[in-house]
Amino acid sequence: MRIQTLTTIRPISILIGLLCKRCYAATNVLLLGDSMASFMGKTLESFCSDVQVKNAGIGGTTADEWAEATAEIISECADTSFDIVYISVGGNDLLSSDCTISSAALVKKIESAVENIVLNVAPGASTYVLTGYCLPHAPEDEVSGCSEPSDYNALSFAFSTMQSNGIEVEGSGSNIEIINSSNVCGGSSISFSNEMYFQDPIHLNSKGYCRVFTQETVQKALSCSDSEDMLNCETVDFEIYGLESNCEHSQTPNKGGKW
Questions:
Q1: How far apart are CA 257 and CA 236, in angstroms?
Q2: pLDDT for position 78
Q3: Residue 162 carries which DSSP code?
Q4: d(CA 99, CA 143)
């Protein structure tokens, strides 16, 4: 297996995508949720070359807000039918509680958001994917209740629980894939993640998105094609791109979080 170390991933990805579109239809992916989604732009297309991305994420939003959202929130993206919907929710519910919320309460909030997205916001996709979050590389606020790595355990436990138990949305017929990515950037319950994967204490850079989206389970969930090359995320150094293409929102929740 070859280790890919080129720093020109984005141009190569785009070229491969253009060539592949002549052979078969790309998988249409919609990104929803907080800034784990919105800060990504179209960067996912560099880690899964068979996808075309539309990004309707809204930084700072909570699972509670997505549990109340309507399809109007993605109206600017609604000109395409989506095969896969990526959902990032739960992080701001933890932060807004100063990391005092329980994992069981987080599970309920995330499940409610997923159910509403599947049935009302973006229905009809074959698969909905949640990856959770890398543990931050540092606290944003040293005096908050989220100052230690262990303060984020509830979020990791919530995604581990949902990964084990699954989420079923009655009547949808859709597959919901959940992957807990809390440790993939080098963090644990006793240490924060590696700074090299972040653009600030909690938001990923291209290396960090690479770490999350090149996991085998995530690649399978997103229906990425098999590749003989194994991407070395530590050598990825392009800027996140496609932010200017994020969908505008006619319905914007009150954004009170950090993710």
A1: 28
A2: 80
A3: H
A4: 12
Quick check: helix, strand or coil at residue 144?
coil
22-39 per-position pLDDT tens digit: 445 789 999 999 999 999
pLDDT tens digits, residue range 77-126? Answer: 887 899 999 999 999 999 999 999 999 999 999 999 999 999 999 999 99
pLDDT tier for residue 225 given thresholds of 50, 70 and 90 = confident
DSSP SS3 for 221:
helix
The SS3 assignment for 135 reads: coil
d(CA 257, CA 104) in angstroms, rounded, equals 20
Residues constituting the chain: 259
* 11 close to 242: Cβ distance less than 8 angstroms: no
* Helix, strand, coil percentages for the chain (3-state, nearest 5): 35, 15, 50
Identify the DSSP state of 136.
P
Distance CA 162, CA 141 (A): 28
Say if CB 34 and CB 91 are below 8 A apart.
Answer: yes
Distance CA 218, CA 227 (A): 14
Q: What is the pLDDT of residues 140-173, one digit of tens each?
A: 777 689 999 999 999 999 999 999 999 999 888 8
- Mind spelling out the 3-state secondary structure of 27-73? EEEEEEECHHHHCCCCHHHHCCCCEEEEECCCCCCCHHHHCCCCHHH
